[in-house]
Amino acid sequence: MFSARLQQLKEQAEAEVAKARKITETAEAAKRDMTEAEKADYAAAVKAGLGIVEAIKNAKADQEVLDQARKLADEIGGVGGEPHRVAKDGRAVGQRLSFKGMGAATAAKMAPAGVKALAPSGATVVPQVLSDDPVALGRVATGLLDVLPLVVQSSPEYAYLRQKTRTNNAAVVAEGAVKPTSVFGVEKIEQSLDVVAHLSEGVPRYWLLDNGMLESFVSDELQYGLGLAVEDKVFADINATSGIQAQAYSTSVLETLRKAITRLENVGLVASAIALTPGDWETVELALSSTNAVEHLSLPYDPATRRLFGVPIATTTSQTAGIGHVLAQESVVVDTDSNGIGVQWSESSNADDFSKNLIRARCEGRFGTSVLRPLGVVKADLTSS
Question: What is the CB neighbour count within 10 angstroms for residue 6?
Fold first, then answer.
């Protein structure tokens, strides 16, 4: 709309300029001064042109304001934490769930900047923070949630389609012959979001009054712990899913992980992440840096971006030691609702807190796990025994 309007104004301005130029050129060609009528027409054309130029400036200013508003809306996202880029299936396109920096957001919602609150009280909801592509080149995945897509569900009860098997029978078919049938083994899974929550210990009310950073610190710790609990749930849900692939230990941890990647490639899938404990990843890196690792000199390994065989490594203490999960693209997603992470402070959570002048915080959210393709998950045993 704005571009069409600007083009129209530009054409009008050019027409007025052409009119004024024609008047002066006519007088010059006749080697005479402009007549009074020509002077009046010339002045009118110039005045009209200047007015149109001013209108063009105003239109461009309006366009800049609109562009800035759109940019701000894109950066903020939707109401209640719902991402501004959502696919038709509810998936947050190119984004993941992040708990980083949410404590500051919680504190900001509790009181305006520069105002010292009497004490935190009541409930506040912090939208889920969505980080852009978490495993882009040059960046490191710092946890399981960094490598799993996020789906915002509109209801706590939902359903999704899971592909259990894939049998591709496509073949060359002679004219008139019966075409083969491929089997994709899709089933409907009914599921619901689970509440993940915990409380803080009792905090003396005056500590919160005297230390403005304490509230944000407690909120950060609660949300960090909530994130680990969500990761625990995701691993438990994955391991309980029937049909995921298994890779036995083979010679070394490196060889085992590479064979796990091959299992995905054998079913036409691409590995997008490897989830390990920090200790198991340490074992891999030390093996790569040892003087006896001649066999690994040509291994595709990037320590700066923490990629092995070109696949991002996500380390988390929620993983089981001696176990690695190799995940294919879009095979596992994290489900949540649009209500955000709730943080509520109370002086009366139990019989003693009010009398002892203690305040507790509760942090909670609702989450689920959808294993869309069990064949896209390989659980690898990294121990030789």
Answer: 15
Instruction: Give residue limits of the domains in the chain.
Output: 2-76, 81-381
- Identify the segments of the chain with pLDDT beneath 70: 1-6, 62-63, 65-141, 290-299
> What would you measure as the largest C-alpha separation in the chain, in angstroms?
107
Contact in structure between 94 and 130 (CB atoms under 8 Å): no
Query: What is the per-residue pLDDT across 129-188, written as a single tens digit (0 to 9) for each?
Result: 444 444 444 455 678 998 999 899 989 999 999 998 888 899 999 999 999 999 888 899
> Residue 105 in contact with residue 76, Cβ under 8 Å?
no
Contact 359, 205 (CB under 8 A): yes
CB 243 within 8 A of CB 376: no
Residues pairing with 327 in the sheet: 273, 377
Cα separation of the two ends of the chain? 69
For 138-155, b where at least 16 C-beta lie within 10 A, e where not — what string? ebbbebbbbbbbbbbbee
Please count the other Cβ atoms lying within 10 Å of the Cβ belonging to residue 270.
Answer: 14
Q: Do residues 94 and 149 touch, judged by C-beta distance below 8 A? A: no
Q: Are 156 and 366 in contact (CB under 8 A)?
A: yes
Give the residue from 146, 113, 148, 168 showing the smallest Cα distance to 305: 146
How do beta strands 332-336 and 358-371 pair?
Answer: antiparallel
Dump the DSSP string for 110-170.
Answer: HS-TT---SS--EEEEEPPEEES-TT-TT----SGGGSSEEEE-SSSEEEEEEE---B---
- Identify the DSSP state of 327: E
- Architecture of the domain made up of 81-381: 2-Layer Sandwich (3.30)
Residue 224 exposed, middle or buried by CB count within 10 Å (0-12, 13-18, 19+): middle
Q: For every residue of 208-225, which 3-state class applies, written as one string?
A: HHHCCCHHHHHHHHHHHH
User: How confident is the model at residue 131, as a pLDDT?
Assistant: 44
d(CA 163, CA 269): 13
Structure tokens at 277: 């404990």
pTM for this structure? 0.66
Q: What pLDDT score does 120 carry?
A: 53
Is the Cβ–Cβ distance between 285 and 304 less than 8 Å?
Answer: no
